[in-house]
Amino acid sequence: MSTLAIPRAGFAQRHFNYLLVGPAILLLLLIGIFPLVYLLIVSFQGITMTDNSSDFIGADNYRALFADARLWQALLHTAIFTAISLPIELALGLAMALLFLDRMPGRAIFVALLLLPVVVSPIVSGATWSLMFDHRFGPINQIIGWLHGAELTLLWTISPHLVYPAIIVAEIWQWTPFMFLLLLAALGNVDRSQLEAAQIDGAGWWRTFHRIVLPAIRPVMTIAILIRGLDLFRLFDIVWALTKGGPGTMTETISIFTYVKGFQQFETSYTAAVALLVIVLLSALLMLALRRVELAR
Amino acid sequence: MTTLRQRRSLALALRLAAAVGLTALFLFPIYWLFMISFKTPEEIYAFPPKWFPGRIQFDNYAVLFKDGDAVTVWNSLVVAFCSTVVAMFLGTICGYSLARFSTGGRRLSDWIVSQRMIPPIAVVFPIFLLYVYLHLVDTYAGLIVLYAAFNLPYVIWMMRGYILDIPAALEESALVDGCSRWQVIWRVVLPMCRAGLFATAIFAFVFAWNDFIFALVLTRTEVATYTVQITHYFGGQSNFWAKISAMSVLGTAPIFVAMAFVQRYFVRGVSLGAVKG
Predict the structure, then answer these.
(1) Are residues B32 and B95 in the same domain?
(2) What residues make up the domain containing B153?
(3) Of A51, A59, A235, B91, whose CB neighbour count within 10 A is largest?
């Protein structure tokens, strides 16, 4: 990039690269730095719905975090949703990608149609599934009733036994196509000559898949898991549309918990501590993950 | 004995059947959502459920426009469009700087991409408190600034990638020919990556358009977006199904159309440029 190097000219010329970056960084401070600083200050105060004084009360809010069973349960719920949805999305997405990998009539149309769930707003997909799961007028109970041979009234969004399956089904429906499309692209890029060489050497399907295909698509798989894992950590919309965290607090994720504390119970300072905890946890996860993956460098 | 050819066509038939079945399975909820919006109340609350509407009728949409609820779709359009314009402008020049001058080194680009991952709820809480102070709650400006900021890391990262894909040689010769550095960006770089520019803008638009949590916290009545409006119809015993579905279709159909134009860039767009597709 020799000629593109900044020449020794006027100030604006010499600092042209910083001039281009500056406005963007300034706007990014609003979400990147301001929240951290502000949360840190507020979390050491004692602001609640009834008490508006901004006196500093030390680390009380942080001590309260550890005693708050509902908070840790919310983290646990988030972990459960992730631990169940993510492997299913990955396995199903991979199976679909293998199915669609080779030529078949109408392939492009199938792929274009399967992309649709991914681009629907998560709140809309939650709403869609609440229509699907309706205990009386929804098609799911109707179909299960047929298969079962008798009318069934399963309360998908209310019954403690069924809320997790309901939310996870909606989640899997929306995001399996995401995994599918990424893995399909990755499979399409696997070196053909290696596959042919393996075939000539008499390697079976499983051996070829395990030894050649899987290592080749591993980088894409890692990135797909990383992106989806971080999304699931922030899970809010689908759960909000289906159960609002209920029954009770049974499906409350960490994002819903933070919302309820901050915007329904107005525990301002405590919420600040919670939000900071969320950021710290996510940053730690992200750092661990980024060590294993290079994002398109 | 079956011949190889017969076995091949049998395998293809099985794969096709599986493909049709899977696609139908994944499309059925969308079909159900769209179809309900064309049903009459009697058809919606029929038992057993009706799998097809008797005839297509638009009363459910007419109600949304008559009651003024449809204005929330307009609000979504305004904030998503304006925030996309801001994010695209700032993000593209920043991405150019990162791509061509490695401004700030690896540390800056890592910081930028990590901003993409921050949990919205943790950010929107302090932003809300700030906006209360600045009187920006329930205003277009407030939402536009936040969506622009939130989409910025995405735009910077994607545009950096698209600009890295084009050779720098042309820019060098344009500089030698006497173009200013701004002219190089506008006349040489942007036309060469216009497909990526367009795809990135569509994705940024869709992210803002589909957002729920920021709008839930930062709007009341004036600039409520369509996603927030949908949740207003949820309620206890009687969900207003007709309104939920009609409003959802108003919010979803435009994205389906937009996606048709950028399908080729989909994989790259949703994988933060990591998978070129």
Answers:
(1) no
(2) 67-270
(3) B91
